[in-house]
Design a protein that fits this description.
The chain folds into 2 domains: 200 residues, NAD(P)-binding Rossmann-like Domain (Rossmann fold, 3-Layer(aba) Sandwich); 102 residues, UDP-galactose 4-epimerase, domain 1. The protein is 36% helix and 17% strand. It is built from 10 helices and 13 strands. Helix 2 packs across helix 4. It binds uridine-5'-diphosphate (UDP).
Length: 330
């Protein structure tokens, strides 16, 4: 398949490109490099620097490159910023995705894979999170992802575009060969921050809340390896051949891990102490989020390879050890 990976220079997109190539597909990348890194994409991968909101250019590219499937990873993803700058999120995450879908319609491309989030569930009343729980996001970021999901349902209903939606839990880790990894600027995610604290590149890690109703008082999350996420995106291709398809899958290991357990695992993997201090809760953090991944397992035959947190962190550590500053371009 010829697959256009929109946002393919970002963290999850770049890992997906590598997995697509390993599975024998022809992957092409479209990225405006606002947050993405050119170095995250190998030189032998066709690369187009373009805004996804540029409908005419994207449509031409889809035709010229004979694209079969579009995978869409390009979104702003800072929850806090989405609260303070909502229009930035609605404009890019929702508005530009509509432009991308219009470009697909113009070009006659009718298969779409969308990167969504467990943030669409807001603060669920029951755990683990199954696909059919009510979706009521508590911030604009989650809202934009849910809006796109609604649009995709409508497009599937009338047979215009078939799509698969993946709701990620906490993407973590890095490519096994250590060539690409996680580099956000600014970085807000727990594992890279804990590794940086362990190596002395950052000050003590702040543990956001130690009085949650969880076994050790810190938040529980479901850390799923970025290569496992990527493999699910490829396993769904068969389903996209059918018209009127809209399928959704929660992607997580199903295993909750607390913030304190992450710090212990980082210490074990790196051999360094993680300096940490208790801090107030971060606004908008639900106490516990973890997936019921039964649907992905049974329908896609998806089997996460990284089921223990130390093996996931070991891949992140391999990348950070050889790239302490991340990619050189930012
Ligand atoms: N966290 C923390 N200190 C940090 C960053 C994150 O205690 O410096 C906690 C955060 O409150 C959450 C968990 O780590 O409970 C995972 O946060 P992250 O930002 O990595 O992902 P999120 O679950 O927010 O998508």
């Amino acid at each position: 398949m010829n697959v256009l990976v929109v946002g393919g220079a970002g963290y999850i997109g770049s890992h997906c490109v590598k997995q697509l190539q390993a599975a024998g597909h022809h992957a092409l990348v479209l990225d405006n490099l606002v947050y993405g890194h050119r170095a995250a994409v190998s030189n032998d991968t066709p690369f187009f620097q373009e805004d996804l909101g540029n409908r005419a250019a994207v449509s031409q590219l889809l035709v010229d490159q004979k694209i079969d499937i579009v995978m869409h990873f390009a979104a702003y993803a800072y929850v806090g910023e989405s609260v303070t700058e909502p229009l930035k999120y609605y404009e890019n995450n929702t508005g530009n995705t509509i432009q991308l879908l219009l470009a697909m319609q113009d070009a006659g491309v009718d298969k779409f894979v969308f990167s969504s989030t467990c943030a669409t569930y807001g603060e669920p009343n029951t755990l683990p999170i199954v696909e059919n729980l009510p979706q009521s996001p508590i911030n604009p970021y989650g809202q934009t992802k849910l809006q796109v999901e609604a649009i995709l349902k409508d497009l599937a209903h009338v047979g215009k575009i078939s799509s698969a939606v993946f709701r990620y839990f906490n993407a973590a880790g890095a490519s096994e060969d250590g060539c690409i990894g996680e580099h956000h600027s600014p970085e807000t995610h727990l594992i890279p921050l804990a590794i940086d604290a362990a190596t002395g590149r950052r000050a003590a890690l702040k543990i956001f809340g130690t009085d949650y109703p969880t076994p050790d008082g810190t938040c529980l999350r479901d850390y799923v390896h970025v290569d496992d996420l990527s493999r699910a995106h490829i396993a769904v291709f068969d389903q996209l051949g059918k018209a009127n398809t809209f399928v959704d899958y929660n992607l997580g290991t199903g295993r909750p891990t607390s913030v304190k357990e992450i710090l212990t695992a980082v210490e074990k993997v790196t051999g360094f102490k993680v300096p940490a201090e208790d801090a107030p809760r971060r606004e908008g953090d639900p106490p516990s989020l973890y997936a019921d991944n039964t649907k992905a397992r049974t329908e896609l035959g998806w089997e996460p390879k990284y089921m223990d947190i130390e093996s996931t962190i070991a891949t992140a550590w391999k990348w950070h050890e050889s790239n302490p500053e991340g990619y050189a371009d930012q």
